[in-house]
Automatic annotation (TrEMBL):
Keywords: Amino-acid biosynthesis, Arginine biosynthesis, Cobalt, Cytoplasm, Hydrolase, Metal-binding, Zinc. Gene3D superfamilies: 3.30.70.360, Zn peptidases. Its cofactor is Zn(2+); Co(2+). It comes from the Bacteria. It holds the Pfam family Peptidase_M20. CDD domains: M20_ArgE. This is Acetylornithine deacetylase.
């Protein structure tokens, strides 16, 4: 039997930065579960360099609860750590190490509770899911959900253990990242009207995106459960041009839309595309026929907003002894679980105030409280 702290020490020691393989960690968890008599299933990526792990405890059949966490962590390069990031280090009641808060602490508690879940007659299935590549766009969980969708049985609640300091969280915004490529026509800048200036057309698109964002920020669109309480539109990267005396033929920029769960990011993408094709491209092509503006999705995940009256919300209220539901600003795999028909809520130990930062930590008190939450879940599943 391992305690959650011992397991956290093991998990932190695997460098599962998203660019690396997570197979050593998955193999460790696989053996741990096997030693307890639990057989899991691995769902690999196409290159077989990474895997999701899925396992079920208790009876087969529909329903039950899924505990879900991601195994990957964000890089430590360029961060000033005062402790070795892949060695669990205790200091002043806190356990330091990359991933302690986001979110190996939760995975450690979930694994430490397995013998306890096994020791009692579960009336419904308990599903465990550990994914890869969450930090780079919730990629791994998509193959996991695809595999799960082939099964007849479906969990009825998913508990995503992202760090919320064990507060019950019902939602977050969705995100869509889009790349725009503007293709104009080059010429000597002394004759600029004979060219199609890709930077200037890109600037018009960026300006239009700002206008769309301002419209979406109007008060009648607000949902005060979120911060900021409206859908935001933001351009983050722009590249174009070579030297000042050439009219630039290429400009590429990336923008993102962070939507309230009830809004559709695709609607914003469609609106800017319509503006581009109807207002700008005809003017560009009047000068150079092969001018074009193209948009490509580059990243994204759906938003999440679980009903406060749902069974999932009731369970998380019971587990946390609080119905003070809130939302978080960061994204999770919950939106994808929800989209796959598994109502999801977010609750995990530690705080995202420490996530992704140097000297990331989880307090021992939070780890203990998460162990206690697992005990309450076990009691609930006996019913
Ligand atoms: Zn996370």
């Amino acid at each position: 039997m391992f305690t959650s702290r011992q397991l956290l020490e093991k998990l932190v020691a695997f460098d599962t930065t998203s660019r690396e393989s997570n197979l050593a960690l998955i193999d460790f968890v696989w053996r741990y579960l096997n030693d307890l008599g639990v057989s899991g299933e691995l769902i690999h990526n196409a290159e077989r360099s990474k895997a999701n792990l899925y396992a079920r405890l208790g009876p087969a059949g529909d329903g039950g609860v899924m505990l879900s966490g991601h195994s990957d962590v964000v890089p430590v390069e360029g961060q000033n750590w005062s402790v070795p990031p892949f060695v669990l280090t205790e200091r002043d009641g806190k356990l330091y190490g990359r991933g302690t808060a986001d979110m190996k602490g939760y995975i450690a508690c979930m694994l430490a509770a397995v013998p306890h879940f096994l020791a009692q007659p579960l009336k419904q299935p308990l599903h465990l899911a550990i994914s890869y590549d969450e930090e780079v766009g919730c990629l791994g969980v998509r193959t996991l959900l695809e595999a799960l969708s082939q099964r007849p049985e479906k969990p009825s609640i998913c508990l995503i253990g992202e760090p919320t300091e064990l507060q019950p969280v019902l939602g977050h915004k969705g995100k869509l990242g889009v790349r725009c490529e503007v293709k104009g026509a080059a010429c000597h800048s002394a004759y600029s009207p004979q060219g199609v200036n890709a930077i200037e057309y890109a600037a018009q698109l960026v300006h239009q995106l700002t206008a769309i964002g301002e419209r979406l920020a109007q008060t009648e669109q607000h949902d005060t459960r979120f911060d900021p309480p409206f859908t935001t539109v933001q351009t983050g990267i722009i590249r174009g041009g070579t030297v000042l005396n050439i009219v630039p033929a290429e400009c590429v920029f990336d923008f993102e839309v962070r939507t309230l769960p009830q809004h559709d990011a695709q609607a914003v993408a469609a609106e800017i595309d319509t503006f581009a094709q109807s207002e700008l491209v005809p003017r560009m092509q009047a000068v150079a026929v092969d001018s074009a503006i193209r948009f490509y999705p580059i990243s994204g995940y759906p938003g999440l907003l679980t009903d406060a009256q749902s069974d999932a919300a009731r369970l998380i209220a019971y587990l946390t002894q609080s119905s003070d539901f809130s939302t978080v600003a960061f994204g999770t795999e919950g939106g994808l679980f929800h989209q796959a028909g598994i109502p999801s809520v977010i609750c995990g130990p530690g705080s995202m105030a420490q996530g992704h930062k140097p000297d990331e930590f989880i307090s021992i008190a939070q780890l203990d409280a998460c162990d206690a939450m697992m005990q309450r879940l076990a009691a609930w599943m006996r019913q």
